[in-house]
Amino acid sequence: MDPVADRLLSKLRSIVPHDVAVYDNSSETPRIVAVPTRRKRWGHVIETIEAKPWVRCELRDKKGAILGYVDNDGEAGGIEDLGGGAPGGTQQQRWFLEQMLRAQETALKWRSKEHSDLMTAMRDLLEVNTHATRELVEIFRVQRDVSADVAAMQAAAANGGDMDQIIKLIEASPQLVAAVGPLLQILIAKARGAKPALTAGKPANGVKS
Q: I want to staple 22 with a disulfide (CB 3.0 to 4.6 A). Which of 31, 93, 125, 198 is the partner?
């Protein structure tokens, strides 16, 4: 008999309880083991107690008052199955600790993956914002250049500049030409004495198709 069972037997014989409340780590509700009146009753009680993992036994009287207790703080005995499930005593505590550590490790792995996915999404969003900012800067630059070209053209016209000078200013700014459109090209052609190109599909005034 192992030391724990020997100590349990000694307590049972000295106290002679009415029943025994057996606790384990998985539940706060104890198993109640009744004490029979037949021969070798203590061996039967111990065998019933150790049929399942346990950590504490409370020896009680008929009214449920605790007369004494025995803790299972010894090494694994011969009836404990260390490979099939949760063992008893110190081995049982070690088993629960291992399960907790595994659960924490799994949670940390998922947390790390979530952080990685979040950082990737933030990086992609930053790239989009950077591209949009560059596009806006380019638009502002074009607007600034067009505004400067228009101001220069207005200044030349106000100072009595001739049409050729104004046209040169306009032609030097592709952005201004693109912004003003075909109407400006027609005015430039007229200023140089050239006839504007006819729109396709429409005859000139006075000309019959």
A: 31
Helices (DSSP H) in the chain: which residue ranges? 3-15, 41-49, 89-158, 163-171, 174-180, 182-191
Model confidence at 61, in pLDDT bands (50, 70, 90)?
A: very high
Q: Quick one: which of 175, 169, 173, 172 has its CA closest to 155?
A: 169
Helix-helix angle 3-15:41-49, to 10 degrees: 130
Task: Indicate whether 209 pLDDT > 50.
Answer: no
Q: Which residue, of 80, 96, 129, is where some domain finishes?
A: 80
CA distance 102 to 43: 38
Could you tell me if residue 8 is inside a domain?
yes
* 154: in domain: yes
Number of domains in the chain: 2
Domain span at residue 144?
140-191
Measured CA to CA, the distance from residue 48 to residue 12 in angstroms comes to 13
Report the alpha-carbon distance of residue 153 to residue 168 in Å, rounded.
9
N- to C-terminal Cα distance for the chain? 124
Quote the CA–CA distance of 1 and 78 in Å, as a whole number. 9
For the ranges 44-58, 73-87, 136-150, 166-180, the maximum mean pLDDT occurs at 44-58
pTM for the full predicted model: 0.36
